[in-house]
Design brief:
By secondary structure, the protein is α+β, with helices and mostly antiparallel strands. The protein has two domains: about 150 residues, no CATH class; about 80 residues, Alpha-Beta Plaits, CATH 3.30.70.380. About 60% of the residues lie in helices and about 15% in strands. It contains eight helices and four strands; from the N terminus they run H-H-H-H-H-H-E-H-E-E-H-E. The chain has a four-stranded antiparallel sheet, covered by helices on one side. The protein is elongated and about 85 Å long.
Length: about 240
């Protein structure tokens, strides 16, 4: 308790010496706040890159995370210290409402990282520096652990299967025995007429059995389809960045 009290007293002393207790933040505190916000958002951007899974990684998106978080700090500092804070705050949220994110988000987690970055910027802008550092560290650690432990991931990778067949093939009868042998579950997603109605393209969602040989599965599908095109695509890919 004595050690904690000593740290608290030291922190309060530093705040007083640097003028951090003033109603309006001074130049030193503004620079300090922007530095803290920029540093924390760099950590968030690094976390995003380290835990990203997919094929659409964007350096521009990571830059945007850092910029949005830092700019949010500036806005909150202005709103919190200006005499007309309510009017400025209303204008700020109106401006946010008009902004459209110019990149199609490839994953739901992309939106979560934007909120994470903005949250960090807001807490720093509210001049709650220890809170900002603590919450960022805890959140970064939690997200990193969830990613590395593959938490909530399916036990086996699922796949999407596309097969083209001639119209004279009864696809239910042709492929059902193969699915029984190699798959735990199948779901017919779509049946589409192609090539001016001369062929049919079928799409299934498939959960392969553990330990099956994909080469054997593909060989039997190829024969059953009449040597037409067969494409098996994993929907749980993992790529190193």
């Amino acid at each position: 308790m004595t050690y904690l009290a000593s740290i608290t007293d030291t922190y309060e002393s530093i705040r007083e010496q640097l003028g951090f207790d003033l109603v309006t933040p001074g130049f030193v505190e503004v620079v300090f706040a922007l530095g803290v916000s920029f540093g924390l958002n760099l950590i968030i951007g690094t976390l995003y890159k380290a835990t990203y899974r997919g094929t659409r990684y964007s350096q521009d998106y990571v830059h945007t995370l850092v910029i949005v978080g830092t700019v949010t700090t500036i806005l909150i500092l202005v709103v919190g210290s200006h005499p007309n804070a309510s009017a400025i705050g209303f204008g700020m949220f109106a401006a946010f409402a008009m902004i459209r994110f110019r990149r199609n988000l490839g994953q739901a987690r992309d939106l979560a990282f934007i909120l994470f970055s903005m949250m960090t910027g807001m807490v720093v802008g509210a001049r709650l520096y220890p809170t900002a550092v603590a919450t960022t560290i805890v959140m970064v650690a939690a997200i990193y652990i969830l990613s590395r432990k593959e938490a909530f991931a399916p036990k086996r990778a699922s796949h999407q299967l596309r097969i083209r067949v001639n119209n004279d093939i009864q696809y239910d009868e042709a492929f059902f025995p193969i699915f029984e042998e190699f798959a735990d579950a199948t779901e017919l997603i779509s049946v589409e007429s192609i090539q001016a109605g001369m062929m049919t393209e079928l799409r299934w969602g498939i959960l392969l059995k553990s330990g099956v040989k994909v080469s054997d599965f593909m060989e039997k599908l190829q024969v059953a389809s009449g040597n037409n095109r067969v494409i098996l695509t994993s929907t749980q890919r993992s790529f190193d960045n």
